[in-house]
């Protein structure tokens, strides 16, 4: 009877030890899974350091604008004006949902876009917009820019943007540009 009681005690100790190791293994596995990135665990979380919405420009000379985020979706438009500003307002994997100044929307492959900022001069206006020598309303006018002209954005202080159009550069009131948000500083 002594050996049976001792044998039962050894069996109980083995079971307790086994349960302890199983619990420890579950704990370690859970900790590893919680600390792993979402893509490693099979979850599809969109994490980006860049805010939405944001402006970019078209890098490619030709880019398909699709109805959904992937090459399996129909092409709705073909964009052929490199450098035009586009607003990204949604993203999925390497695809970006964009809109242009006319309100045309669709999905475009992310590598076809550039972080270089451009703007469109007041596409909603009928009158020309002043390109000024300095960032003040009383500064001399260098040129008059027609609506829908594309300019390169150099910097913006929230009220005025330094822009370039070919060899000509100057300042445009930020409210007269599509491609930069009101009050945005670049």
Q: Would you spell out the secondary-structure blueprint of this structure?
A:
Elements: H1 2-35, E1 54-58, E2 63-66, E3 75-79, E4 85-92, E5 95-99, E6 105-109, E7 113-114, E8 118-121, E9 129-132, E10 141-145, E11 150-156, E12 160-165, E13 168-173, E14 177-178
Antiparallel strand pairs: 1-4, 1-7, 2-3, 4-5, 5-6, 8-11, 8-14, 9-10, 11-12, 12-13
| Number of E-type strands | 14
CATH architecture descriptor name of the largest domain: Roll
What's the main sheet like? 5 strands, antiparallel
Structure class: alpha+beta
Into how many domains do the coordinates divide? 3
What's the helix-strand series?
HEEEEEEEEEEEEEE
Q: How many helices in DSSP terms? A: 1
| CATH topology heading of the largest domain | SH3 type barrels
Protein name: SH3-like domain-containing protein
Organism: Mesorhizobium shonense
Keywords: Membrane, Transmembrane, Transmembrane helix
Transmembrane segments: 20-38
Features:
single chain; 186 residues; alpha+beta; SH3 type barrels; 3 domains; five-stranded antiparallel beta sheet; 37% strand; transmembrane; transmembrane helix; SH3-like domain-containing protein; membrane
Task: Write structural notes for this entry.
The chain has one helix at residues 2-35, and strands spanning 54-58, 63-66, 75-79, 85-92, 95-99, 105-109, 113-114, 118-121, 129-132, 141-145, 150-156, 160-165, 168-173, 177-178. It contains one helix and 14 strands. It is α+β, with helices and mostly antiparallel strands and 186 residues long. The chain folds into three domains: 1-42; 54-116, SH3 type barrels, CATH 2.30.30.40; 119-178, SH3 type barrels (Roll). The model is unreliable at 27-46 (pLDDT under 50).
């Amino acid at each position: 009877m002594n050996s049976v009681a001792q044998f039962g005690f050894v069996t109980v100790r083995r079971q307790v030890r086994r349960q302890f190791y199983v619990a420890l293994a579950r704990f370690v596995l859970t900790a590893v899974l919680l600390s792993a990135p979402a893509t490693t665990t099979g979850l599809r979380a969109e994490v980006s350091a860049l805010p939405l919405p944001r402006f970019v420009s078209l890098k490619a000379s030709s880019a398909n604008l699709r109805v959904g985020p992937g090459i399996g979706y129909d092409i709705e438009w073909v964009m052929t004006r490199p450098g035009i500003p586009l607003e990204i307002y949604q993203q999925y994997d390497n695809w970006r949902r964009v809109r242009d100044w006319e309100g045309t929307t669709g999905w475009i492959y992310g590598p076809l876009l550039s972080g270089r900022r451009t703007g469109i001069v007041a596409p909603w206006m009928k009158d020309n917009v002043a390109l000024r020598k300095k960032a003040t309303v009383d500064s001399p006018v260098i040129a008059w820019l027609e609506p829908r002209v594309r300019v390169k954005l150099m910097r913006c202080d929230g009220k005025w943007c330094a822009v370039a159009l070919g060899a000509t550069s100057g300042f445009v009131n930020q409210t007269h540009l599509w491609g930069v948000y009101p009050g945005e500083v670049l």
